[in-house]
Structures are given as structure tokens and as C-alpha cells.
Amino acid sequence: MDVRFVSRLQQVTVLGATGSVGLSTLDVIARHPDRYQVFALTGFTRLSELLALCVRHTPRFAVVPQEAAARGLQDDLRAAGLATRVLVGEEGLCQVSADAEVDTVVAAIVGAAGLRPTLAAVDAGKKILLANKEALVMSGALFMQAVRKSGAVLLPLDSEHNAIFQCMPGDFARGLSQVGVRRILLTASGGPFRQTPLAELEHVSPDQACAHPNWSMGRKISVDSASMMNKGLELIEACWLFDARPDQVEVVIHPQSVIHSLVDYVDGSVLAQLGNPDMRTPIANALAWPERIDSGVAPLDLFAIARLDFQAPDEQRFPCLRLAKEAAQAGNSAPAMLNAANEVAVAAFLERRIRFPQIASIIEDVLSIEPVVAVNDLDAVFEADTQARALARDWLSRNAR
Ligand SMILES: NC(=O)c1ccc[n+]([C@@H]2O[C@H](COP(=O)([O-])OP(=O)(O)OC[C@H]3O[C@@H](n4cnc5c(N)ncnc54)[C@H](OP(=O)(O)O)[C@@H]3O)[C@@H](O)[C@H]2O)c1
After folding, report:
1. Using CA atoms, how far apart are residues 184 and 247, in angstroms rounded to an integer?
2. CA–CA separation, 340 vs 96, rounded Å?
3. Which of 48, 96, 209, 326 lies deepest, with the highest CB count within 10 Å?
4. Ligand 1 centroid to residue 198 C-alpha, Å
5. 3 state DSSP class of 153
6. Residue 215: its pLDDT value, please?
7. Is residue 123 packed enough to be buried (19+ CB in 10 Å), middle (13-18) or exposed (0-12)?
């Protein structure tokens, strides 16, 4: 055989493999064994699921949070006849992100915990498929500087940002005004509480908040979608990914989640990307970019959808969206503080310690107390994150049940 014609399989690390995005990624990868090989899978609490994924995808490495869990998983993997090596903690996550043999890193850990492993992939110049929007929200300027410095290829997995990416011209990095882009229209479903009477929001349960009308997702992002903090985080994410000012990104409620976002050009053309609400489409798009591969997603049936609706977001109903816009305008440490306070508040809501509207109250309080400071390095980002978490926990100790 002439080895020049044997193309190497792309080695993929999936950070957060046991989660919703991780599982969708593995579904797409499994459809293309001629292209992709799983290099590493990581999990946090769902370790029996991680074992099953290792058996299915035979990665070189698996990563878990603690030594004891690592020993247990290593024994189970050996018993299953697998050579997968188990690594531990953040160091293990960074190792499988930066390993010289890895081509692509899917950043699908939820929350601030994903920042260091994602940055390790960036610093190593990998192709990064970014779902972990919190990492970019926290450290936007530093993150994008690191991308430019290492030459990493950053591709958005968030369906909205992937849609925007598909509607942008290839040379959008020259600047939006240079390429004739007037606005980015970021669509939002409005979540499960779009029409719930405001007074009833005091009594909604975590399960109601997680019952998203169109998307099946992890619990943290589901609550963020219900409060529209998710759209606020996405607005900040869009500013960094596409070098846009916050006022160039307009949020549009579109309850059907068929149009995943739009780009408005100065000549009046508006380009949109449509598709069924299934993360396998943006995942397949980013994995194979600039080629196209089958994702397993059913073709869009416009006749079944029949109509597309749009409305402006109501910031009285969704105060988290206003808070995120204010943090985007303030810049510096404000988005990291917003994200940290939100993570603490959402966890408390999921534990039934606070009511749904109190998520916004906590964030607003934290942002009003903690001064916005410049963040010139990662230590400053984590300092802002730690401070905001402490203030949010302090709020909880005074007010939560
Ligand atoms: N789901 C979607 O459709 C969607 C769409 C766009 C963007 N995103 C973004 O993608 C990310 C993941 O979302 P998801 O819905 O897939 O969440 P998820 O289902 O909750 O999965 C989160 C993953 O992160 C792992 N994890 C949690 N805490 C961790 C920690 N401290 N250290 C290391 N790993 C940790 C989890 O492990 P265990 O499960 O083993 O505990 C799991 O593998 C989020 O940033 C979200 O905003 C999601």
C-alpha cells in the first residue's frame, strides 16, 4: 500500500463526554469511523456512563476528578480488556487537551471548570470546538489573545454562534464593518417561561425550568435558558467570537428554534441558518469544517413547521438578559463576576434553596457590590470569579431556605 494516500484519523478529545453535548458529539463521531478516533473522554460525576463510553469508543485516556474514582475506573477498564489509561483532575484534563497527538478538542465541560482545560487546548494550537461558553465569557480578551498567539482554530458549537459563523463571510476577522456586516441577530426560544404569568415565576420548580420546549440539554444551561441568562452569555460570547460591540448584537425571540441566528448586511441582505433543533448539526459542521458530513439529523420539514414567529425580549420578564448586557458593556471583570454569581445562583435554585426570580436578585446584588476591575491575566479572572462566588454564597447564607 502507498502510505502517502492513507489519511490519518483525526484524534479527538471530548471534554465533558458524559454530558448532553459530549454524547451528541460521540454520536456524530461514531457515524464517521473513517475520519475520527476518540483520543480521550472525560467525566465528573457520571462515571458508570464514562465507563460505558470508554467501552464503546476505546479512547487512549479517560479523565475523572479524584484518585479513588480513577482507581475504580482503571480496574473496571482492565476487567473489560481495555488499555485506556485513567488520569486525574484538572491536570489530567489539561494533559488530554494539549497532547501532541490530539487534533481536535471538544470543549463541553459546563461552567468555569472548563476554562483551564480549554485554554490548554488553545495554547497548544488545537482545533477547538467550543460549547463551554462560560470559559469565553469569563476571560474573553485573554482567551482571544491566546487563540491569535497560538494559531488555534476556534469553531463555535453553540447552535446560534455556529449559525452566525456559517452566515459570515470567510474573512470576517477583518472586522464586521470591513466585510459589510451591520448586525448580528441572535435568536432565542424564550424558554419554558416565555408566557408564564410573572407572579407564577415565584413558584416554578427546577424540573419546570429544565423542561425546555425545543432543546434537550444539561440542567445548568436549561435553567440559564429559562432565565435568558443563556442568551446574555451568548451575547457576550458573540462579541468575542466575531469582534462585535454589544450594540451590534440584537436578541430576537423566535419560539420555534428553527432559525438558529442571522447576519444582517449593509446592503439589506439578511442571511440565516435554519435546521432542526439538534446539536448534532453544529457539531458535525464544526468537526468537519470546511467540509460537510452527515450528522444523523432529519431533514428540515418546512411544511410541518408552517410558520416562524419573532418578538422582542421583555427585560422585565428576563432581568438576567439585562444584567448580562450591562456586564458586556462594562467589560473587564464584570462578565466573570456575572458568570460566577449565576453559577452559584443556578446551583442554589436546582437545590431548591432559592426561588427562580432570586437568581437575578443574587446576580444583581453581587454586581452592585463588587467593583469592576481590569483583568490582565488569568489570576485576575479567577480572583473576580472567587470574589463573586463568595458574595453570592454570602447572599445565600442570609436569604436562602
Ligand atoms: N446542551 C446543549 O445543547 C448545549 C448547547 C450549546 C452550548 N452548550 C454548552 O455546553 C456546555 C455543556 O453543556 P451540557 O448541556 O452538555 O451540560 P451537561 O449535560 O451538564 O454536561 C456537562 C459535562 O461537564 C462535566 N462536568 C461538570 N462539572 C465538571 C467539573 N467541575 N469538572 C470537569 N467536568 C465537569 C459533566 O460530567 P458528569 O456528567 O460526569 O458530571 C459533563 O460531562 C455548557 O457550557 C453549555 O452552556 C450546551
Report:
1. 9
2. 26
3. 96
4. 29
5. strand
6. 86
7. middle
- Among 160, 233, 165, 228, which residue's Cα sits nearest to residue 191? 228
Is the predicted pLDDT of residue 5 greater than 70, yes or no? no
Taking the CA atoms of residue 69, residue 75, residue 77 and residue 82 in that order, the dihedral angle to the nearest 10 degrees is 140
Q: How many CB atoms lie within 10 A of CB 149?
A: 11
* Ligand 1 site, residue 19, Cβ cutoff 6 A: yes
Q: 66-121 pLDDT, tens per residue?
A: 999 999 999 999 999 999 999 999 999 999 999 999 999 999 999 999 999 999 99
Instruction: Output the CA 396–ligand 1 centroid distance in Å.
Output: 24
Query: Are the CB atoms for 297 and 281 separated by under 8 Å?
Result: yes
Give per-residue pLDDT as tens, 230-253. Answer: 999 999 999 999 999 999 999 999
Overall average pLDDT of the 146-173 stretch: 97
**pLDDT over 50 at 2, yes or no:** no
340 in contact with ligand 1, CB cutoff 6 A: no
The ligand 1 atom nearest the CA atom of 132: 45
Instruction: Tell how far the Cα of 304 is from the centroid of ligand 1, in angstroms.
Output: 31
Q: Report the Cα 76 to chain-centroid distance in Å.
A: 31
Atom of ligand 1 nearest to the CA of 111: 45
Within 10 angstroms of residue 397's Cβ, the number of other Cβ atoms is 8
